[in-house]
Amino acid sequence: MSTIIYPSPIFGPVHSRRLGVSLGVNLMPGDGKVCTFDCLYCECGFNKDFPAHDKRPTREQVRAALDEVLALRHHNGEPLDCITFSGNGEPTGHPDFPGIIADTVELRDRYFPKAKVSVLSNATFVGKEEVRRALTMVDNNIMKLDTVDGDYINKVDRPVQPMYDVRKVVENLKLFDGQVVIQTMFMTGTAGGESVDNTGERFVAPWLEAVKDIAPRQVMIYTIDRETPEHGLRKAAPDVLDSIKARVEQMGIACSASY
Questions:
Q1: What's the mean pLDDT when you consider all of the chain?
Q2: Residues in contact with 203: Cβ distance below 8 Å, sequence separation at least 6, in sequence order
Q3: Number of Cβ atoms within 10 Å of the Cβ of 153
C-alpha cells in the first residue's frame, strides 16, 4: 500500500490538477494522520495505520515556516499559484485555524499578492462560526460533499464523529451564501464486497438537489488519481464526469472535472 504522509507545516510545492503550482500547508503532525474522516480513498492511508505521535505545529511555527519559504521563493523569482491547506488531516480542526489563516493572507499579500489561498476541507467543522469566518477570508474554501446519502458516507468517508449528520453539514454550507466551493469525489468499484459506485442516479440526483440548495460559486468534481488504501476502488469514466458536470452547469453553477 502506497501512502503519502506530508511534512509539517510546509511541503511542496506540488503541481495540482486544479490549483496549479501549490505550496502545501499541513496543520497536522508530520509523522502521522489526524482526520475527522477515514476515507477509503485517502492518499494518506487509514487513520489507524498512521497514528501521530508529534504535536501539531503552533500558529507561530506555521507563520515562521511560511514566511521563510515565501520570502525565498520571492527572492529567487520562483512562481507560485496557490497556498493550499491540506496534508495529513482536516486543517480546520487546528485550534488556531482562524489566526493561521489571517497570518497566511497577510504573508501572501506581502510576497505573492496574485497567488490564491485555498483550503481543502471535509466540512466537519463548518458549524463553528469562527471557522466559517476564517474560510470566508480565503480565495478558495473547497468543501467536500461526496454524497448526501448517510449510509454511503458511513461506508466510504467514514466520519469518526458519532454525531456527524450530512443534512446538518448541508445546512451549514448554505450559511456561506454562495461564497463556497463544493468538491466531490465520484468513483466506482467495491469495498468489502459492496459497491461504492456513487455515479448512478440514486446518488447523483439528491446530490444535485443539495448543490442547488447550497448554491456554491463553483463545484469541483474529480475521481481517483493516486493509489488508494482500499484496493477495490476504481476511477469514474470521463464521460460520466462530463455528464454530471453538464447537469451542474445547467443549474447556472460553474463546474470543473478532473479525470
A1: 96
A2: 147, 149, 152
A3: 21
